[in-house]
Amino acid sequence: MSATINTRCERLRTLFSPHIRESHWTRAAGLVQDTHGFNAGTMLRKCLIHISLRRNRHRYGLLRATVRYGDIHRRGATSTAVMGDNVKPKTMDDLGGPGFLSTLNWLFVKGYLKKSQLMQIEHKKIYGPIWRSTFGPIVLVNVASADLIEQVLRQEGRLPIRTDMPHWRAYRELRNQAYGPLTEMGANWQRIRSILNPWLLKPKHVSSYTDTINQVVTDFIDRVAWLRETSGQGVLVNDLAGELYKFTFEGTCSVLFEKRMGCLNEVVPEKTLKYIDSVGEMLRQSQIVIFFPKSTWPYLPFWKKFVKAWDYLFNVAEELVQEKMKEIEERVKQDQNVEGAYLTHLLLSDKMTVTEILGSITEILMAAVDTTSNTIAWSLYELAKEPEIQEKLYQEVISVCPGDKVPVSDDIAQMPYLKAVVRETLRMYPAIAGNARVTAEEEVVVGGYVFPKKTLFHLCSYAASYDESVFPNPYAFFPDRWLRGSEEKFKQHPFASLPFGFGIRGCLGRRFAELEMYLFLSRMIKSYKLRPDPTGAEVEPITRTLLCPAKEINLQFLERKVEQEEPRAATGVSL
Ligand code: HEM
Q1: Are 385 and 536 in contact (CB under 8 A)?
Q2: How far is the CA of 16 from the centre of ligand 1 (A)?
Q3: Are the C-beta atoms of 482 and 424 separated by less than 8 Å?
Q4: Within 10 Å of residue 296's Cβ, how many Cβ atoms?
Q5: Ligand 1 center to residue 330 CA distance, Å?
Q6: Pick from 79, 120, 137: nearest CA to 465
Q7: Is 507 annotated in some ligand binding site?
Q8: Residues 6 or more apart in contact with residue 134 via CB below 8 angstroms
Q9: Residues 511-541: pLDDT tens digits?
Q10: Is 377 helix (H, G, I), strand (E, B) or coil?
């Protein structure tokens, strides 16, 4: 290494010594030697990116990380942390972005409160893929490209934190309830995830839920027939997302508690309807409460509604837990076998207190229902608009499961197009349009900026999954882009669409949700041809904490066995 570079190295080392470990430094210095002719600024960038991506080095290698960084840099996505020899790293204060008043203007005057997913795209156009914004007491750093999302996630630390969710946690403190996987943090979060994970994430356990899920799918198919006849002029199903909500609630309760709730009966129990309303209400109020400082919450009507909704969600879960405990006690008394499904395993394992189980079950049930039902609703909505894609899916399903054969989990492994349909739906309609991470353990470098510990990063998943440079023609529903061997799949960035999140803090219900969606779609497509709402109504997504349809999705279900002439004369709509 030349003397000049050595001197510069030492100067940079002094400046960044708290952030650079010896091993990182040695490696970065080696790189400078390899690429002589680079100036000290380039070297610094290499050092920083090396540090920021160090957990990445085994998988991608330092060279690729550096090349990636170079790409971002050339596109003007980040600002260099270097100013000749006067090296001054850029910080959060150097980031552009809307202040609090401007944010209020965007949300309440320009009307983005309900479509904040689109605000990600608009802000990215204005500020580039990294910007800072202020929401009441909260300052966050938004990252909206696959590269930058990767950089944040690779530095999430040993015990990742999504956000500290002060209002959700405050409810639990108010009512003396335990935190569940969504709200818990640190070592206790790790402990409860290690107990909750096996029966929801291990493939062999998840595939054991196939028959239970298939029974619920059968009931839903019957319900579709009933809805078409009673309220759909023989063909329509109105408010599909609402109907699917009942399906996922029933499916989740069957798997978690081995209990049928009667949600798919002709008359839906009052309790289920109230549960559905309470989840909606809690998510709506949650979005508003967070804008206000914690000290004002007790005086806010939004907070009271938020608390009331959570009370109901906890009450329903508590009843189910109590019931299961009684059932187990009875069986033990009668010397009967007490094997069972998810809740039974938790209760029998003795690794969590009953209060902890209640905290976790409430959150799991809440997290399971909206996410999966909306994703299925969007799949059906897109399939109805695209008869060719639907036909391709139908042909795949009947080639694996001809005649009356009901698909089971092993069959799904042979249905790549079905998986691509779900993947594409999740790209276009990610149930969580914006994920988050708080980098609690260390300072991090993202996009060439140095951020202090406890920075809250907003991962703009929606904007990233509509990035034209990763997904050409991003507004088109094109499942083929996910097929192995397709040209596009080859170029995709693995962090451009992460619908179930990432790493050890990733979705607890991913495998269960996927199985439920695959079984549902494969069976529905075998039974019915889908066609759009005869009125031609288009449905946009809105953000209500989760991404949801802005209005009812109504679709036509044409029976396949007795193929109907389409379109139905009564509708007068050409398809
Ligand atoms: C299509 C369906 C679903 C989608 C798109 C989805 C998406 C997500 C995402 C993006 C996260 C955040 C992960 C991260 O921060 O990296 C998450 C977390 C979570 N999900 Fe899901 N989810 C779905 C279904 C489910 C189901 C069915 C369950 C339960 C059976 C569930 C339970 C959870 C829980 C408990 C967490 C919190 C995990 C933690 O913080 O440790 N989800 N989900």
Answers
A1: no
A2: 38
A3: yes
A4: 11
A5: 34
A6: 120
A7: yes
A8: 97, 98, 99, 100, 103, 140
A9: 999 999 999 999 999 999 999 999 989 999 9
A10: helix
User: Would you say residue 120 has pLDDT above 50?
Assistant: yes
285, 302 contact by CB (below 8 A): yes
| Closest protein CA for atom 37 of ligand 1 | 182
Q: Which residues line ligand 1 (CB under 6 A)?
A: 162, 181-182, 193, 200, 363-364, 367-368, 371-372, 375, 426, 431-432, 435, 499-502, 505-509, 512-513
State whether residue 80 is helix, strand or coil.
coil
Q: State ipTM.
A: 0.99
Q: Which atom of ligand 1 is nearest to the CA of 200?
A: 30
State whether residue 431 is helix, strand or coil: coil
Q: How close is the Cα of 465 to the center of ligand 1, in Å?
A: 18
Question: Rounded mean pLDDT of 174-180?
Answer: 97
> Which of 153, 254, 500 to mutate to test ligand 1, by most ligand atoms within 8 A of the CB atom?
500
Residue 392: pLDDT over 50 = yes
Pairwise CA distance, residues 542 & 120, whole Å: 13
Q: Kindly give the distance from the C-alpha atom of residue 463 to the centroid of ligand 1, in angstroms, as a whole number.
A: 19
pLDDT digits (tens, 9 = 90+) for 464-481: 999 999 999 999 999 999
Nearest-CA residue for atom 20 of ligand 1: 507
Distance from Cα 505 to the centre of ligand 1, integer Å:
9
User: DSSP states of 481-518 as a string?
Assistant: GGSTT-HHHHH--TTS--TT--GGGS-TTHHHHHHHHH
Task: Report which DSSP code applies to 108.
Answer: I
- Distances 531 to 49, 382, 408, 571 between C-alpha atoms, Å: 50, 10, 26, 12
Place of tokens 């809105």: 542
Under the banding of pLDDT at 50, 70 and 90, the label for residue 24 is low
